[in-house]
User: Which sequence fits this backbone?
């Protein structure tokens, strides 16, 4: 047989331009690689973005979403340990330990007392089974708002964490701090005048994750006040420098 008989036969294909020959593709070249869409990823459902999700819900005053976030990621036997550090971080005062539902109630109370509170997450790091987050917080400490809330609230946590008298509570906080005496005197003057004060704080979270359940089993927060100034002040006499 001739060699032409061993070649594959071309197939005639009808087209609008008439008949043309369609030859089989005998090339050994591989096809172009396929592009696959990256699977959808919900950041809100990730422990790595827990601090960001919490900050977003608090900034919008969405306390029900905070409760839902806690229910999804925090173990029922988890306890939150909070520590108030001094301006320079050398002196620390332990706050009462609370559970997740109590912390939700505290956030709801803060939402009423500090309506302009803004939280910004600066960084998140993973170290073994721990997630460490650093955030900065700004809010206005208003004696008028807190006094009005104290007259109407039935929340027992208010007296535990804010005391019965605004001036006494604020003075005690400053007395326990390590600020220079000149700064303390400036803040005392704001307190005695009953002025609204803009507060900048720093918060460090350490979340310990259970390897089996993938839930938070321990939460430690260290917070300290960086600066206090009279609300609306542009850096005049009432300004308290940052530590």
Assistant:
């Amino acid at each position: 047989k001739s060699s032409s008989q061993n070649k594959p036969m071309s197939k005639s294909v009808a087209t609008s331009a008439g008949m043309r020959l369609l030859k089989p593709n005998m090339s050994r070249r591989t096809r172009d690689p396929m592009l696959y869409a990256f699977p959808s990823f919900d950041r809100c459902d990730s422990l790595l973005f827990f601090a960001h999700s919490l900050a977003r819900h608090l900034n919008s005053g969405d306390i029900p979403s905070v409760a839902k976030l806690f229910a999804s990621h925090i173990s029922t036997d988890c306890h939150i340990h909070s520590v108030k550090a001094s301006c320079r971080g050398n002196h620390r005062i332990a706050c009462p330990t609370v559970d997740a539902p109590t912390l939700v109630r505290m956030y709801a109370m803060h939402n009423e007392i500090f309506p302009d509170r803004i939280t910004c997450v600066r960084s998140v790091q993973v170290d073994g089974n721990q997630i460490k987050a650093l955030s900065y917080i700004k809010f206005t400490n208003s004696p008028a708002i807190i006094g009005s809330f104290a007259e109407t609230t039935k929340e027992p946590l208010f007296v535990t964490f804010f005391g019965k008298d605004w001036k006494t509570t604020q003075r005690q906080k400053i007395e326990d701090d390590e600020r220079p005496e000149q700064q303390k005197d400036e803040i005392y003057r704001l307190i005695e005048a009953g002025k609204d004060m803009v507060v900048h704080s720093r918060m460090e979270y350490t979340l310990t994750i259970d390897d089996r359940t993938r839930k938070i089993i321990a939460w430690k927060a260290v917070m300290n006040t960086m600066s206090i100034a009279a609300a609306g002040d542009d850096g005049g006499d009432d300004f308290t420098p940052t530590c």
The chain has seven helices and nine strands. The two ends are 97 Å apart (CA to CA). The first strand starts at residue 11 and ends at 15. Helices lie at 50-59, 63-73, 100-113, 143-152, 157-162, 166-175, 181-193.
